[in-house]
Amino acid sequence: MSRRYDAYEHYDKYEDYEEWFDPMRTDRKARRRRKPKANHAPKKRKEAIIEELADHLVELEGGFKPTYTPSRYEKAWLIASLQPFYEQAIITDVLALVKGGKEASVYRCAAHPSTGETLLAAKVYRPRMFRELRNDRLYREGRGVLDADGHDVTGGLHRDRIMRALGKKTEFGVQVAHTSWLMHEFTTLKTLHEAGASVPKPFLAAENAIAMSYHGDEAVAAPTLNTVTLEPQEARRVFDEVMHTVEIMLEHGLVHGDLSAYNVLLWQGKVTVIDFPQVVDVHRNPNAGALLHRDITRLCEYFARQGVERDADAIFGHLWRRYLRRNPEEVLADLSRAPGWSEG
After folding, report:
1. Strand partners for 98
2. Are 243 and 318 in contact, with CB atoms under 8 Å apart?
3. What local confidence, expressed as pLDDT, does residue 162 receive?
């Protein structure tokens, strides 16, 4: 059996060619923001890099040849990310890109019959060199570092090494942070789905991707709320369903941390809350109250435009007292002292 090609190692080796392998490379503003890299050694011509990647792709693909045709520069990391789902009988094909983002892209996939589904979604985190996690310390505070099995490694024998690597952002530290970020999303989805929250059902996590339930049909993915206009009666029902999931999260000591109309799906009347990598521990993260208040405020602002007026401060106060047994006035006072707070 031929050795599988490590696409990520290859990318790290040729990181000076970042924009050539970036599926979002048309974002010119992002490119202008990048700092120039020190030129310590002669670079290979881009044609040589592309040919070298192409040669390895033949070995990498094996029997996994998706219907979806990615760009040449997207192909290596996409197939490397989704190959485990193919090998473990979770998906049989990749059909389309349904959402591109700075940190991850989501693909519509044909599900393997053993899953009991027709379609699945695969959320593929962008390669380490492409990801731009901003203010991640805000979310990481007070939560453990998870390994690929979802186990917290901060209390183990290698804690000091891991924490030093994270602090210095060494290559190992970057990989640890990457894995932990992904596994926090996967474990959160598993916990919340089992608790009856309106979230995607997770199927499997790989080194760089999560397979989960798909919401939509063969032609189009479920839209996010920010693209939808609701009648007031429907808006009230949707608001209540979203807040029900917020309450289930609080019951499990969790706050979404980045909740808004942009990460709530609506399909045939069914609500699904998505995107949980930045989830915070409400008991251990001192920013949890401010993040919860921001989540609720963003939701109330959207639903006000749909004809549903809700008092974000009052809702926050009620939830904070009910689930935390704490005085919400302390959090609200802190926010009033920093009215422009919008971290994250």
Report:
1. none
2. no
3. 67
Q: What is the mean pLDDT of the chain?
A: 80
Q: Where are any strands of DSSP class E within the chain?
A: 91-99, 104-111, 119-125, 202-205, 209-213, 254-255, 264-267, 270-273, 280-281
Are 248 and 196 in contact by the 8 Å Cβ rule? The answer is yes
Residue 21 · residue 73 · CB < 8 Å: yes
Is the model's pLDDT at 233 over the cut of 90?
yes
Strands 209-213 and 119-125: antiparallel
Q: Can you give the pTM of this predicted structure?
A: 0.77
The DSSP secondary-structure symbol of 341 reads: -
Check residue 159 and give its pLDDT.
66
Report the alpha-carbon distance of residue 326 to residue 342 in Å, rounded.
Answer: 23
- Is residue 53 over pLDDT 70? no
The whole-angstrom separation of Cα 223 and Cα 230 is 13
Domain topology for 225-337:
Transferase(Phosphotransferase); domain 1 (1.10.510)
Q: What is the DSSP letter of 306?
A: T
CA 86, CA 184: separation in Å to the nearest integer? 23
Residue 40 pLDDT exceeds 60: no
Separation CA 45–CA 50 (nearest Å): 9
Residue type, 30: A
- Report domain extents, the chain: 6-213, 225-337
Report the pLDDT value the prediction gives residue 24, as an integer from 0 to 100.
36
Superfamily classification of domain 6-213: Phosphorylase Kinase; domain 1 (3.30.200.20)
Helices (H) and strands (E) in the chain, counts: 11, 9
Q: Which residues contact 170 (CB under 8 A, 6 or more apart)?
A: none
- Structure confidence by residue, pLDDT tens digits, 263-304: 999 999 999 999 998 999 999 999 999 999 999 999 999 999
Q: Which residue has the tokens 């985190």?
A: 125
**Higher-pLDDT residue of 332, 58:** 332
